[in-house]
Amino acid sequence: MLCDVCREFDAVIQVTQVTEPPVKQLNLCEKCAAERGIETQLSVPKQPLTDFILAVQQKALPASEADTTRCAFCQGTLRDFKNTGRLGCAYCYGAFETNLRDLLRRVHGNSRHQGKQYVPPVEAVSEGATVLAELRDRLKRAIDQEQFEEAAKLRDQIRVIE
Length: 162
Known about the structure:
Layout: E1 13-17, E2 24-28, H1 30-35, H2 48-60, H3 63-68, H4 78-84, H5 92-95, H6 97-108, H7 127-144, H8 148-161
Antiparallel strand pairs: 1-2
């Protein structure tokens, strides 16, 4: 099936337009779809955040410093980081710490995390369970010491809690 717009290439995308009661269906080739703003394999979506970070890095790193500082483990330089936006290994974070702190400060306004932090859940030991365990322990000691009146009171308290 040919493209409904240019009538030159095979249609690979079908667009359904619902604007009025008659529904329109357009069969478009990749070129015509890209011209209308529909993402295809020809039109790769841009990544504005990556472009922004690369632009900040290029302004931030002086040329002489970018070549002299190297990671001892992977031999990556600040220039490599500037060009790719990626560090070479885990040791690069330590090697380029001052530059990364400056970059984070410019991008986020601070080099330290200011948001919420993960707090692991507290074990599900309710207050009632600890009180109940204490009462049972006292009941056992009262029976061992043959204090049966005290044991009866503790037994009644345990029944109320349960």
